[in-house]
Amino acid sequence: MKTHTKYLKIHTENEKEIINITRAVEAAVSESGVKEGIVLVNSMHITSSVFINDEESGLKRDFMKWLETLAPKGDYDHHRTGETNADAHLKRTIMGREVVVAITEGKLDFGPWEQIFYGEFDGQRDKRVLIKVIGE
Amino acid sequence: MKTHTKYLKIHTENEKEIINITRAVEAAVSESGVKEGIVLVNSMHITSSVFINDEESGLKRDFMKWLETLAPKGDYDHHRTGETNADAHLKRTIMGREVVVAITEGKLDFGPWEQIFYGEFDGQRDKRVLIKVIGE
Amino acid sequence: MKTHTKYLKIHTENEKEIINITRAVEAAVSESGVKEGIVLVNSMHITSSVFINDEESGLKRDFMKWLETLAPKGDYDHHRTGETNADAHLKRTIMGREVVVAITEGKLDFGPWEQIFYGEFDGQRDKRVLIKVIGE
């Protein structure tokens, strides 16, 4: 059994941003030498997400507008700690923390449109994504 | 370490549908010979989901009605591409892309009511579900 | 390859409750002897969740209030079976069934604030969480 661990550094220019990280995950899988297995990709932070959807700029705007309706900025109990980002915790919950992707014949075993994204909801700071490959 | 990969073909009659795929996942686990490990089950498409809940027809209707309130059909930026299914991308996000299930003593290690479902939100086309078993 | 399976018993005092289970998952990883791999942690029930977020009491209240707005108690088709907990099935869907966490050098490979929680939405009954460790 082989394992491979990689940390991807991310620092967004904007507070909220969606970044395609598919190439970085593919690179980690290639480095691992794993031909059959899985790769876990997760945000290491609790106000950002890793998710799979379509690379389309309109859809990315739709996601951000939609998240604002479901988990709006506002007054939350969490803010009594001095934080002001409770909405980012909720937005991340909708989008998810992690994805697990199959590796088949050394490649991400993806459908025609699947791409991996990092979704930032409280950015402009150093963040990390964890990539863990296991298999053989 | 053993791995086993299987693709499940799905083509729904309706645009939106929830299909119980537990038996197909059990069959893949049995074929794999894996006694201890995990199985990843994911939609290979970005407008459908794999999720775990209860096999109850009323609850399935509740899920569909609820998703229509949280992620309604409507006018989205994504539709400038000619697509008309942005709501299906959002509905799938709520329900999730994938599940990871433990395999113990050769079987899905499930609680009393857990069943695996494929949730289609933009159907009437050929789709696939990926089943990846890893373990020993 | 090593695997380790553990069941965590949970019985909440309240109908809805969020419980930090990070220590129990760390203990299971330690017992497993796995140094590099992953751990799956999932609710074995369909009205409760396992998720990762921040240990902060205000945020936990925010989650519960927010879930009540997105998935309120009410009249659902599921209730024709005699059940009255359809809202708990929906709340659990928002929060998620499971998490998969990387194990690196024998420890949960977490960011600075990540903690694992059990979220109960239909409690006051015996429930179980499954912890499955795989790796080497």
Describe the structure.
3 copies of one chain form a homotrimer. Chain A is an alpha+beta fold and 136 residues long. The first copy, chain A, contains 3 helices and 8 strands; from the N terminus they run ββαββααββββ. In chain A, the strands form 2 sheets. A 5-stranded antiparallel beta sheet of chain A has the order 1-8-3-5-6, with helices on one face. A 3-stranded antiparallel beta sheet of chain A has the order 2-7-4. Chain A is elongated, with a radius of gyration of 16 Å. The N and C termini of chain A lie close together (5 Å). At the A-C interface, strand 3, helix 3 and strand 8 of A face strand 4, helix 2 and strand 5 of C.
* Largest sheet strand order of chain A: 1-8-3-5-6
The description of the largest β-sheet of chain A is: 5 strands, antiparallel
Based on CA atoms alone, the radius of gyration of chain A comes out at 16 Å
Quick one: which chains have the greatest interface?
A-C, 31 and 35 residues
Number of strands of chain A: 8
Low-pLDDT parts of chain A are: none
Mean pLDDT of chain A: 98
Distance between the termini of chain A: 5 Å
Strand content of chain A: 35-45%
**Shape label of chain A:** elongated
